[in-house]
């Protein structure tokens, strides 16, 4: 917990909180307003508002947002010899790596909570939708938070070895696009191998409309099996990435 707390102290003057708040707010407004402008209503209430809001956000923006957060978290370590101070602390390399991944994952979780809050606020206050956000979208949000962790781990690894702020973000943008295209053309192999593809699919979990319309690729329904799939795959990818990053760091003499 001490490592995570120290990471958040380092972020006090960064732009991380702007990323956490502004990206989901902008994307929910964009998705909701474009639907309302085009169709004049949310035909299936929450079951229209949620898929329209999370569609493009989950397939393109969220992974890039996590990449920006990872670059911000590691940026301070690449300045003024802070890297040497970090690696000389009386903690193991794997603890350093886990502390960074945990901080980035918590920021990503905060992004999803902001997303849910804005969807509810718009649905109730702006569009007067009846009832409350269905439980299935709360559950899918929990799965999204879990699926963010391997992406946070991979982006943390990239930001560890790239002193450039932009390079890891550019890689995330390109690989996210490739992952989404692979899903669109039906290459199932990427679904459990690339963290970005896993996250993209998690965001689309249960987003098939009542009318039967869905995203451009086949999405999972929310079932115990699909939830377990995302949890296990995310856990396995995270363990592998953290172990690989720690092993490489232990063998390299990197100085900022």
TrEMBL record:
<feature type="transmembrane region" description="Helical">
    <location>
        <begin position="97"/>
        <end position="123"/>
    </location>
</feature>
<keyword id="KW-1133">Transmembrane helix</keyword>
<feature type="transmembrane region" description="Helical">
    <location>
        <begin position="135"/>
        <end position="153"/>
    </location>
</feature>
<feature type="transmembrane region" description="Helical">
    <location>
        <begin position="15"/>
        <end position="34"/>
    </location>
</feature>
<feature type="transmembrane region" description="Helical">
    <location>
        <begin position="227"/>
        <end position="249"/>
    </location>
</feature>
<feature type="transmembrane region" description="Helical">
    <location>
        <begin position="54"/>
        <end position="76"/>
    </location>
</feature>
<dbReference type="Pfam" id="PF12730">
    <property type="entry name" value="ABC2_membrane_4"/>
</dbReference>
<keyword id="KW-0812">Transmembrane</keyword>
<keyword id="KW-0472">Membrane</keyword>
<feature type="transmembrane region" description="Helical">
    <location>
        <begin position="165"/>
        <end position="187"/>
    </location>
</feature>
<protein>
    <submittedName>
        <fullName>ABC transporter</fullName>
    </submittedName>
</protein>
